[in-house]
Write a structure and sequence with these properties.
- The protein is 14% helix and 19% strand.
- The strands form two sheets. A four-stranded mixed beta sheet has the order 1-6-5-4. It has a two-stranded antiparallel sheet with strand order 2-3.
- By secondary structure, the chain is α+β, with helices and mostly antiparallel strands.
- It has a domain of 49 residues.
């Protein structure tokens, strides 16, 4: 499991060696607000354009996880 706990940006390079995620299609991305609310599982979009204003993420051309625009704004990226 890859977990990042801090103020973050909107793009995440996924580790590939020694425990990295092998299949991004089956990955689950969650956001936990600093206010202590429950974690929210984000919806996977096919692309940045498809993500648009949805609260979700997509896998970019480099194979990294990128948050959709609305999600990025929400997490403070």
């Amino acid at each position: 499991m890859f977990e990042q706990q801090s103020v973050v940006g909107c793009n995440f390079t996924i580790p590939t060696a020694g425990g990295g995620i092998g299949d991004l299609d089956s990955a689950s991305v969650q956001f936990t607000p600093s206010s202590g609310e429950l974690a929210e599982t984000l919806t996977k979009a096919d692309s940045a354009v498809a993500g648009g204003s949805n609260n979700g993420y997509y896998v970019d051309d480099n194979g990294d996880i990128a948050l959709c625009e609305t999600t990025c704004d929400r997490v403070g990226g």
